[in-house]
Here is the input.
Amino acid sequence: MNRLKEFFWLCAGVNKSILQNCPSESSKYVGIGATIFFTGIFAALAGGYALYTIFDNYLIASFFAIIWGLMIFNLDRFIVSSMRKNGDAKQEWMSAIPRLILAIIISIVIAKPLELKVFEKEVNAEISHMIQEDLANQESTVKARFQADRNRLNDEIQMLKNEVIQKTAKRDELRDIAQKEADGTGGTRQRNAGPIYAIKKADADRVDEELQVLLVQNGELITSKEKSLTELAQQESDELSQMQKSELTGLASRIEALDRLTNKSSAIWAAHIFIILLFLAVETAPVFVKLISQRGPYDFVLKKEEYGVESSYYEDLAKVNSIIKKRSTRLTDEEIDYVQNRLQLSLEKT
Here is the structure.
């Protein structure tokens, strides 16, 4: 039990020799150290899961997860151990603001991968939906690319067919006029096959010949364009069959899927906020405990030792300054003696 307590002291970054003489402070720093330790564990788990989605390898993910967890642990330990209780609440809060901001950033970074794990089933379902959407977009892109050529060929085929229909209608109209001239129901209304009928019959026969030529020409063109349509449809079918599903298994895709889920579902959005708040509370708890707690024996003894070290430093600095000043003064006296001697010698020579 003592070893576990000392381990949590180590996690809290306290001076063990001082804390052993302040038993009333032991539980507080055990709690702070345990919070820091478990935050590091959470960070390692979150980092491992996030890295596994990137590398898809347990060994690599585990190795970097340990490094990430140790880094977050050390950072939290530094944040808490560097805070000092000096009795000035305003100054303490001002000095804690950068630490709180850093703690909030760390909590958000830790929470996101674990949040992805919590909603893993929902995220996987959303990713499947995203894959289907991507396939549908690819399909519509391929079809749009072939649609213009398809429409052009269909329009040309219809135009050729309309030419045949119009020519057929013209021939039938001329035949009907010639027939009515022959039976006296139209034209001159004389029932005989006279020269007028022959002229009208010749016009109908000429248009019929033109129709036969047009049928051959347009038939060949229509057959060619229908063949082109078939080939176009085959090309489109080949490209559609070659479409591949997107591999949306990376970290960015999973984060995007979670973002879509939070936008679509108010329940998931609320759970997402609660998870973030939970990790914010866990990560900032050691800092707030240090801020709201009263100055204890440990803080006073630590301040005394730090002040002693600081006083010793200034005393040593003052001694060094005194020695330097004395050396400077002695050197000046020597220079004065030297000048006086030189002057005396000059006077004697004169």
About this structure: The mean pLDDT is 76. The longest helix spans residues 120-183.
